[in-house]
Write a structure and sequence with these properties.
mainly alpha
Length: about 100
């Protein structure tokens, strides 16, 4: 009976160790993925106008050159408007954020 209890305890502790190990190994990749998804979220939404994409990006995301290449001035104007709407951002600061 004691041998069975020891074996069950050993299996449980091994599974717990493996679970913790997987969590430690996978956590960084999940955090990196989350950051990437957040960064491109505004620029990849369907049904959102180019101006609105720019405004959303300007509020809290970097200037997206790929979206600008697709949308042009509408995205740029939206980006500047969104960026300037953030307290302490000047127009010059926002325009410099669009430079390559």
């Amino acid at each position: 009976m004691m041998k069975i209890i020891y074996q069950i305890g050993s299996i449980i502790s091994n599974n717990l160790f493996v679970g913790v190990l997987y969590s430690i190994l996978l956590l960084p990749s999940l955090l990196i993925t989350r950051g990437v998804i957040t960064t491109v979220a505004a620029s990849s939404e369907k049904g959102v106008s180019c101006f609105d994409r720019g405004f959303i990006d300007g509020e809290d995301h970097p200037f997206n050159q790929r979206t600008f290449d697709h949308c042009g001035d509408d995205y740029y104007q939206g980006f500047i408007s969104g960026c300037v709407s953030v307290e302490s951002n000047s127009r010059d600061t926002c325009e410099s954020a669009t430079d390559d």
